[in-house]
Design a protein that fits this description.
The chain has 315 residues and is an alpha+beta fold. It has a single domain, classed as Endonuclease/exonuclease/phosphatase (Deoxyribonuclease I, Chain A, 4-Layer Sandwich), CATH 3.60.10.10. Strands 3-6-2-1-15-13-14 form a 7-stranded mixed sheet. A 6-stranded mixed sheet has the order 7-8-9-10-12-11. A two-stranded antiparallel sheet has the order 4-5. A hairpin with a 5-residue loop joins strand 7 and strand 8. The longest helix is centred in the middle third of the chain and has 28 residues. It starts with a strand and ends with a strand.
């Protein structure tokens, strides 16, 4: 059996792509030529899910990880999200190929490729506050107390804050993934994690001035512990030479009122597992050629999308 190439995209479309006509968001996905797409923030400001329209334009199948409830009885416009498997609703998984099964916990789907091979796709959007980089840089944004990076226990405080914000939520997904890994079918895990990686916030990166201190961020550590690999860092292992920032794309329109500039970071990831899976390429899609490998004149999101091309050994 010949090898199979598979493209996976992780894309936070920023409140349903509401800043521009939805076609601009669809064009980003179309130009990526992705086969599997993990979308975060699939609803607009009226809480209308944009997934069906996006999928129809692309000719893709899809699964929404949220249930929409009418609020007409309350006089509200549109719909309200009720999380089905995670406290952070508003995610969708799109597939060029047939979706054939769902994972035990409901956070992932099985996809059958034209070759007959089966792969699994998981997608998440972790809670956006407290956001540890803001805490360490004293940027006033939503909740979370400032953490002085000069204190001896600054890293421990940062890890604790990240655990409080994300551990319960991500463990639900990781439990689901672990139930699938024993099948030894390729697994992909996309998402806006709203937390950097321990592979980025290293001592070397801190000494280079990229970050205030080293932080062994717990979510990426947990993902790594169950056997998933970070596609971007597989190809670009040095965070000082290739930071790979995905946040923010351009000037974040809701930037906090602070004298400190919004810190750049890599919080959008594609993880993978599988003995026969190899990363061929990873690209960022965004607002200009200086920050992105594929640039768009009217980029509609505040996150750069991440596109990974994998090769699946057909032997």
């Amino acid at each position: 059996m010949p090898n199979t190439n598979l493209k996976v995209l992780s894309y936070n479309i920023f409140w349903g792509g509401h800043q521009q006509p939805l076609e601009e968001t669809i064009e980003v996905i179309r130009k990526s030529d992705a086969d599997l797409v993990g979308i975060q923030e699939n609803v607009n400001r009226e809480y209308e899910d944009q997934t069906p329209e996006i999928a129809k334009a692309l000719g893709f199948s899809y699964v929404r990880h949220a249930v929409l409830d009418s609020l007409e009885e309350f006089g509200a416009r549109g719909n309200k999200l009720r999380a089905r498997w995670t406290q952070q609703a508003g995610q969708s998984t799109l597939s060029r190929f047939p979706i054939t099964a769902q994972s035990p916990g409901g956070s992932g789907v099985q996809v059958k490729l034209p070759s007959g091979e089966k792969v699994w796709m998981f997608n998440t959007h972790l809670w956006h506050y407290p956001y540890v980089p803001y805490q360490l840089m004293n940027v006033d944004f939503f909740e979370g107390e400032a953490i002085d990076p000069k204190t001896p226990d600054a890293e421990e405080q940062a890890i604790l804050s990240a655990r409080i914000g994300h551990e319960t939520e991500v463990n639900k997904v990781l439990w689901d993934i672990k139930n699938i890994l024993h099948f030894e079918e390729p697994v992909f895990f996309t998402g806006d994690f709203n937390e950097p990686s321990h592979l980025d916030w290293t001592e070397e990166a801190a000494q280079a001035g990229l970050f205030p201190i080293k932080v062994a961020y717990p979510t990426s550590m947990q993902v790594s512990k169950i056997g998933l690999k970070d596609a971007f860092r597989e190809l670009f292992p040095d965070p000082v030479k290739v930071p790979g920032f995905t946040w923010p794309a351009g000037t974040y329109p809701d930037s906090p009122d602070s004298a400190i500039a919004d810190p750049h970071d890599r919080i959008d990831f594609i993880y993978f597992a599988g003995k026969k899976v190899r990363v061929k390429n990873v690209q960022r899609l965004g607002e200009d050629s200086e920050t992105s490998d594929i640039a768009f004149a009217k980029y509609p999101s505040d996150h750069r999308a991440v596109l990974a091309t994998f090769e699946l050994d057909g032997a």
